[in-house]
Amino acid sequence: MQLTRPFLAVSMALALWPAGQALADEPSTEEPSDTIVVTATRTSMRLQDSPVAAEVIVRDEIEQSGAEDLASLLEAHPGVDIERSYLGSSVRLQGLEPDHVLILVNGRRVLGAKDGVIDLSRYALENVERVEIVKGPSSALYGSDAMGGVINIITRKAQSPLSVQLHSRYGSNATLDASGSIGLARKSLSSQFSGGWHSQEAYDRNPSDVATSGSAIEQFDVANQTELLLNADLRVESQLSYMQRNLEGIGLSGSGAVFDRRNLIEDFQAALRPRWVADKNSLVSIDGSFSVFRDQYFSDQRGSNALDSYQDTQEKLGQATVQYDRVIADAHSLTLGVDGLAQEMISERLADEEGNRLRVAVYGQDIWQVWDAKTALSIIPGARLDVDTEFGVHPTPKVGLRYDPSDRVAIRSSYGWGYRAPGFKELLLRFENPGAGYVVEGNPDLRPETSQSVQLGFDVDATDWLGIDVNGFYNLVDDLISIGTLQEAAAGEPTRYGYVNVDSATSRGFETASQLNLSEAAVLQLGYTLTDTLDHERDRPLEGRALHRGTAKISAGHRPWGLSGMTRAAVVGPKRFYVDQDADGVEEEIATDTYINIDARVSQALGPLLQVFAGVDNLLDAGDARYLTLPPRFIYLGINGRFATAAKTTKPTKSAPQERINPAGDGGI
Fold first, then answer.
1. How far apart are CA 607 and CA 552, in angstroms?
2. Are strands 175-185 and 189-200 parallel, antiparallel or unpaired?
3. Three-state SS string across 359-394, please?
4. Which of 57, 126, 405, 660 has the fewest beta carbons closer than 10 A?
């Protein structure tokens, strides 16, 4: 029995645009049933077959959005909360913290978190094929940091004998984006090269002082992905990428000192992945990767050198995975794997200026499919056991269920544990500020943050033109790590602060997403998220979360003219912040106003090879200098070029058991 699609919005981009539209908004020839998802089960399978709910933003949607980086792409996505701050653009899922969301590139962990935040704006989109989102606890498969969910960035592969793409955009605030790619695909070898340059000037939300709200950016990135098919059963894939990002801005201290800041970031990643199909029901995958991340931060005080500072943080990460997938008796899809991780950080702020950790984990999952002529039922038990040199042993079980009472309805539920391992700075930090009279110390005895989560949702293809998804969630998080006072200041001594496990919190709510096919060339998407949170220690909602959030997106095109347009909007309710404004030691609650963020884009094909486009982001100029630091209104125009030679393709058949083993072989283990 064929299972229904787990998330209806996935097919939106495939149905949106008329066949005659050209270039960046040209629809994929891939059918919705052929869309591949990896992240949900850590095994490549067709999205419609996935027993775990997943959301996929495909390449067509990426290009239609006009976004240049991952943060901008996700800003109006249902159930995804993007927060911009001095740490960069972070993401929350289901109301949990950014460091509770695991960010992957092709199934591999990334480096460069600042206070737990991975800056999503550093991921340019020219080399991204799709983005997969799994909400809710995923530690049973991925281990640490996946308490709130996983976002997996899948990079592009060559799919035509020869393909060339060029893209250029210029906009307000002296913004310039230029990127290109070339792909070559032969019978046994394919290789995709891409590169981009992105720059913009700093912006200021508060002209009354000299400080900037957003840094000036110059970013350069290059990447290659090559795949070699050695024989019908063995393929080897390699990936290389390098990114350099330079940020410059002006800051103010509490005493009024002015600082010129510069942040130079470099990120290098290399990976090798062989895959061997042992027989029609078995697949062995090996993945090895190595990453280096360097963050240099300069702060130059104007008119003095008393507070000048330079920080150099270097991280290295080696990862290795061996995974075995097997289909047994057409009813069980078994996944077994071993993960290994070796991480090093060098920073003058760490005790002994160096931190090292090793982590080894074993994991397993079974997708047990039980069906008859009328119903389909999948039971998905899984578990993982991590052994870490910094905190010892940690188990994370999970069990899920999918029930299809008909071809148009899918019901999913799950219960699982999650955890986040404390980072090097929380474990080993040593930072002293004599001028302010305090010291912050790491705590090597920290316990991991843990969670227990329940999910329940359903997807309904009500008709051929209407689909509705609803998902409810409840997360209980314990042992949250906070900074607490270790020792009050004695005469002539600084106050000692340190990281401690003190807090617990809950987040609960539900998400809805609906899709209405207005015509063959127009689609409307609507989403709503209710996120209710509680900080148990302080008996108040968690800071920075909006109780209500709505999204809308409408896309339309006129095939004979090669004309298309897209408008998307996010309506975000008040967010609460807690600030001691009068220095009396008591925090006051501040609530922001509801705001609306609207983006719009229109494109016009100029023959078969060229397309021009124009758009505006943040049309209403929502945001402020302190709590809602959205980039100001941005107007742009640009041009795309695309050329590709036709490739002979063989359309895959519907999922036979062996096809669930390796239908496409892309995107991760």
1. 31
2. antiparallel
3. EEEEEEEEEEEEECCCCEEEEEEEEEEEEECCCEEE
4. 405
pLDDT in tens, 261-296: 999 999 999 999 999 998 888 999 999 999 999 999
CA distance 595 to 193: 40
Which tens digit of pLDDT belongs to each residue from 537-587?
999 999 999 999 999 999 999 888 999 999 999 999 999 999 888 778 788
- What's the CA gap between 556 and 563, in Å, rounded? 9
According to DSSP, the residues that pair with 273 across neighbouring strands are 237
Count the helices and strands in the chain (H runs, E runs): 5, 35
Give dist(CA 317, CA 83) in Å, integer. 26
DSSP symbols for 36-95:
EE-TTTTS-EEGGG-SS--EEEEHHHHHHHT-SBHHHHHTTSTTEEEEEETTEEEEEETT
How far, in Å, CA of 89 to CA of 202, rounded? 15
Query: pLDDT tens across 588-640, in order?
Result: 999 999 999 999 999 999 988 999 999 999 999 999 888 888 999 999 999 99
Determine the Cα–Cα distance for residues 424 and 355; give it in Å rounded to an integer: 6
Q: Dihedral through CA 116, CA 120, CA 123, CA 127, nearest 10?
A: 120
Q: Are strands 332-346 and 309-328 parallel, antiparallel or unpaired?
A: antiparallel
